[in-house]
């Protein structure tokens, strides 16, 4: 496994931002665009704020969302609102490069189909979207994106993007499916917080139970882990 550990969260966030810039430079040396699938949460928010101050070719970077809440884009729980405030607006990213989920609160299935259609248009001819980078978090229940334990989206193998009913929230979320995540050339998990320790130990264990620990669905990822989240040695 490819694991990088940090003693302090700011070190992790700075390292991810630096690695992001290096990956953008390397990718754009051989192609015209860089496509990234974003994660929500407090850990990536600070990374986005750091990136907003970097001198990057923003007109060549295209931003997509790995998951979203079923709330309007101006809602405080919206991942789109968070990313716009932390990164896209401060960096003056062109609107043509920002590809948010078209949330339809009363018809999440239609919204998911619309976003999947957009992805299939942007990644035409590909069996699954070939992201240059997929940023991922993990919850204390081992979910990633909005692939929550015991939910229907875990079993999806044909679709790229779906609506997913999450019983514990009594609400729909939107999410990339496992095949659409695994198609990324780079997949980076950003893990911090003592409350993630037990989940991480289960995800990294030899026992494979992706229906219970959905982060196990992601293959070949790099893990950026703060020391407070590292499983204790037995």
TrEMBL record:
Residues spanning the membrane: none
Limits of the Glucosamine/galactosamine-6-phosphate isomerase domain: 11-219
Catalytic activity: 6-phospho-D-glucono-1,5-lactone + H2O = 6-phospho-D-gluconate + H(+)
Pathway(s) the chain acts in: Carbohydrate degradation; pentose phosphate pathway; D-ribulose 5-phosphate from D-glucose 6-phosphate (oxidative stage): step 2/3
Keywords, ordered alphabetically: Hydrolase
Pfam families: Glucosamine_iso (PF01182)
EC number(s) given by UniProt: 3.1.1.31
Function: Hydrolysis of 6-phosphogluconolactone to 6-phosphogluconate.
NCBIfam families linked to this entry: pgl
The protein's name in its UniProt record: 6-phosphogluconolactonase
């Amino acid at each position: 496994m490819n694991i990088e550990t940090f003693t302090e969260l700011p070190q992790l966030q700075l390292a991810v931002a630096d690695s992001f810039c290096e990956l953008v430079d390397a990718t754009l040396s051989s192609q015209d665009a860089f496509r990234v699938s974003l994660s929500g949460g407090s850990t990536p928010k600070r990374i986005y704020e750091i990136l907003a101050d970097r001198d990057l070719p923003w007109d060549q970077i295209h931003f997509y969302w790995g998951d979203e809440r079923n709330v309007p884009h101006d809602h405080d729980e919206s991942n789109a609102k968070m990313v716009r405030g932390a990164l896209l607006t401060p960096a003056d990213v062109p609107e043509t490069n920002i590809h948010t989920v078209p949330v339809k609160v009363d018809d999440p299935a239609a919204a998911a189909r619309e976003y999947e259609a957009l992805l299939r248009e942007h990644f035409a001819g590909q069996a699954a979207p070939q992201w240059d980078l997929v940023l991922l978090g993990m919850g204390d229940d081992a979910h990633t994106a909005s692939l929550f334990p015991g939910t229907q989206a875990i079993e999806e193998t044909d679709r790229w993007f779906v609506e997913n009913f999450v019983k514990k929230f009594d609400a729909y979320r939107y999410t990339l499916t496992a095949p659409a995540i695994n198609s990324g050339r780079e997949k980076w998990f950003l893990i911090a917080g003592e409350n993630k320790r037990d989940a991480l130990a289960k995800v990294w264990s030899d026992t494979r139970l992706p229906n219970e620990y959905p982060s196990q669905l992601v293959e070949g990822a790099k893990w950026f882990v703060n020391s407070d989240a590292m499983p204790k040695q037995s």
